[in-house]
Amino acid sequence: MTAPGIVPQGESGSAELSALRAQFPIIAGHPELAYLDSAATAQKPQAVLDAVQAYLTTTNANAGRGTYTWANRTTALVEETRDRVKGFLGDPDPAESAVHFTSGTTEGLRAVARDWLPRLLADGDEIVVPVADHQANISPWLEARQQLSGQGVRVRVLPMPYQQASGDYDHTALASLAGPHTRFVAVTHVHHVYGGNMNIHRIREAVGPDAVICLDAAQSVGHLPVSVAELDVDFVVFSGHKAMALPGSGALWARQARGPAFAPGGWPGTPNTVGIASLHAALDWLEAAGPDRIERWTVALAARLTDRLRHLDAYEILGCRTSVAAGSPVQQRQGIVTFRHRDIDSGDLGFILFSHGFMVRSDGHCQGGAGEKADSVRVSLHVYNSMEEIDRLLSVLATLG
Ligand code: PMP
Q1: Per-residue buried b or exposed e for 33-47, using 16+ beta carbons within 10 Å of the residue's own CB
Q2: Is 365 in the pocket of ligand 1 (CB under 6 A)?
Q3: What is the rounded distance in angstroms from the CA atom of residue 324 to the CA atom of residue 271?
Q4: Strand ranges (E), 219-306
Q5: Could you give the CA distance from residue 146 to residue 86 in angstroms, rounded to a whole number?
Q6: CB of 338 shorter than 6 A to ligand 1
Q7: What is the mean predicted confidence (pLDDT) over 149-154?
Q8: Would you tell me the crossing angle of helices 273-289 and 69-88 to the nearest 10 degrees?
Q9: What angle do CA 103, 105, 108 make, to 5 degrees?
């Protein structure tokens, strides 16, 4: 594997950043463009592209189905990647936990809802659903409730309370809402619109030691350290493509300590072996780069954008209006900043920004029904973005004020 360069610590245009950007062919090949949509999908380093090529040209076979070398190597790769996921998540008890490969976060959350949740719940139980989070972390739980209700098992849905001004969960309101029948809580680690780190420790405090917590880590794995030794959660679900692996790959980690053991339902079929190979390489790359250093850099980029944008009167920043820390109700704004222009429609703003070379996301961001009622523009960052891109973006936004 190619060792990643040192992650830049703040100097715009530094040699370290150039070396790092050079590892991403699509970024290095388009210096006139700024990719600011990594929350939708992340770009891939050469090491991941090489691993895909190497797998397909030296090993490609089905997993768990043959006795010849390529098949055995593929089976071993799948098992090694399971261990890699556990290692990457800082799993303190890998002998007890399970990793199930999925096509992404949507499928992972659905697998928990479809294959596991109905085995946990009994008549009269409650589940907490984060109704202003990504739709992928809402629909599966409502569908599970519907399915149970058809079997005569009534489950109450408690909508997760939010603090309007910050886009964070309201932990105090959650604590008074949750009771002894609250068995399951679906939460998100980093909100895909508001960008806040949702402070999972406070969720555990609010719901008590027995409730199962399922963490949608789509926007945190690969962006900041995600340690299941520190976070007392039961499931961690993420997408490979947002963590620099190929689309169609992803993982569901299950601690197997509360409630029944997770086992995927139905016949599994052929796993996405190429995606799994890419996930292994991506996690290697991210670990060598250091999730803590990636976090420091993307937080610094987002802080610059947030703190300057809020002084431009034409813009409204969604969620917490400050970047972070002191006095902020949000534990920490990560590399996601979402905003609207007072007069310019968000779709039009997206087109205008692209005419200047900026690729951003503009629409409703698949947010659940209790979320924002109007569209917005989202800038989402990764380790390959530069301060210079942020400053150029700010100058263009200022001319539209
Ligand atoms: N949850 C969150 C927080 C997300 O941001 C996304 C993707 N935008 C998803 C779930 C769904 O991920 P995927 O489309 O990769 O399944």
Answers
A1: ebbbbbbbbbbbbbb
A2: no
A3: 41
A4: 235-239, 250-254
A5: 33
A6: no
A7: 97
A8: 40
A9: 75
* Ligand 1 contact, 136 CB (< 6 A): yes
141 token code pair = 């739980």
Q: What angle do CA 305, 379, 352 make, to 5 degrees?
A: 100
Angle CA 247–298–2, to nearest 5: 55
Supply φ then ψ for residue 216, to 5 degrees.
-80, 105
Residue 148 phi/psi, 5-degree rounding, is -65, -35
pLDDT in tens, 209-250: 999 999 999 999 999 999 999 999 999 999 999 999 999 999
Structure confidence by residue, pLDDT tens digits, 28-46 = 999 999 999 999 999 999 9
| Atom of ligand 1 at shortest range from CA of 40 | 8
Residue 39, SS3?
coil
Q: How does pLDDT run across 47-106, given as a tens digit for each residue?
A: 999 999 999 999 999 998 889 999 999 999 999 999 999 999 999 999 999 999 999 999
Query: How far apart, in whole angstroms, are the C-alpha atoms of residue 19 and residue 3?
Result: 11
Q: Is the CB of 239 under 6 A from ligand 1?
A: yes
Domains of the chain and any CATH numbers: 15-44+290-399 (3.90.1150.10), 52-288 (3.40.640.10)
Buried b (16+ CB within 10 A) or exposed e, 97-136: bbbbbbbbbbbbbbbbbbbbbbebbeeebbbbbbbbbbeb
Main-chain dihedrals φ then ψ at residue 372, nearest 5 degrees: -65, 145
pTM of the shown model: 0.96
List 238's β-bridge partners, or say none. 251
* Amino acid at the residue 355: S
